Amino acid sequence: MAQELDFETQVFEKEYIEVAGTKEAIVRGGRHLLPLLPKALEGVAQIGVIGWGSQGPAQAQNLRDSLEGTDITVKVGLRAGSSSMDAAREAGFTEDAGTLGEMFEVITESDFVILLISDAAQAQLYEQVFANLKDGATLGLSHGFLLGHLRNVGAEFPANVNVVAVCPKGMGPSVRALYVQGAEVNGAGINASFAIQQDVNGKATDHALAWSVGLGSPYSFMTTMESEFRSDIFGERGILLGGVHGLVESLYRKYRNEGATQEDAFKRTAECVTGPISKTISHEGILGLYERLDDAGKEVFKRAYDASYLPMKAVLQEIYDEVRTGNEIRSVVVAGERLERYPMSTIDQTEMWQVGERVRAERVEGEIPLDPFTAGAYVATMMAQIDVLDEAGHPLSEIVNESVIEATDSLNPYMHARGIAYMVDNCSITARLGSRKWAPRFDYAMVQESFPALDAQQSEQGPSAAFEGHRIHDVLDKVGQMRPSVDIFVAG
After folding, report:
1. Could you say which of 32, 143, 245, 283 is catalytic?
2. Fewest C-beta atoms under 10 Å: which of 23, 343, 370, 394?
């Protein structure tokens, strides 16, 4: 049963939405709310944004721009001698202006510390970070990984600080790109969840909401920090990255074995998923994708769905259990020393991804096929992920953002421009480790279970029988009404 969470804000307008019989409290964003940020951030003279990875540049720049003309300084904190110092300076953060400094000095002097260093670095440095926080400061996280790690090692957050999370449902470049586009379309941005882990002075909720609004979130919905890290780490190993990686590789080989050319096999798999499948789901919903198919295509879709759903769900349930029990977080932490000796290689040297470079270079968008079998297998995986999260009681907004919207409105457009292999090779270390670990499991499940099931007699009451009436379609429709009227633009 989905969680029903509520919150109180003294600054922003809270509203309730009804999704599949569940009530959720949210705050809609928009540039018109930026004048409220100083009031919501009362007592905050400086926000320290610590780290310059995927989220750091986007969040630092968005908050700086949103707080322009106020008395609140946004200052970036990086390791002394960090190679990212020059990139931060190029983005307008400088020592002379008092907006760039050494990370622990910035932590010590900031009233609101947004910790965006890598998960491995958080696990290594959290004691030093905690020791440098001001009494009564707000510690902000964009991922619940640190909470999971603290539980694994029997530690806790300091009792004298607020601890909040704002988690954009998209990669950092998407957060920045859509914020910039939002200058022309009010509210354009990436949805975000927020969570309040500790509130020591009654300011935590408004601090979190101000952070989310300042990032440009079209709407902010509540979750818990534990629910967030479970869904986030699970999701990136599932349909957001690891699942799509393993799925398209298995389908590419299947189509090649059936006689398709390299180019056609790539178009029917990776191009189809990141192109017409994603764009249709983004604008018309998952059910809208199915309804676009003709009668013959619908039969192929259902056949692929029925053969794929249970094998994919079994892998996804295992991933969720590994995240829930802390095992997946432990595996990321222990990988640190191993990676120093055995760095991760890239995956872009195999036939499929080499073919992809040629196909993207010659791409004609209107000629990318909407392959019904690929659509059925992909949607089965997406729906299986939705069901695992739903059965675990996650909030419905979190489920659709983590399983659908983040894929179709953020990650997949980047994959379409630059390649799935590019994304696997250039995301966070946590996500890269997860994709490499779990993509082969999805691939194996398709080859060993799903494809052989196609030759067996399928029941008319297979998993697809529940697809059209699934409650997630109504949820996605409701949430989709809050989607800004702009698609992210990603240069290839």
Report:
1. 143
2. 343
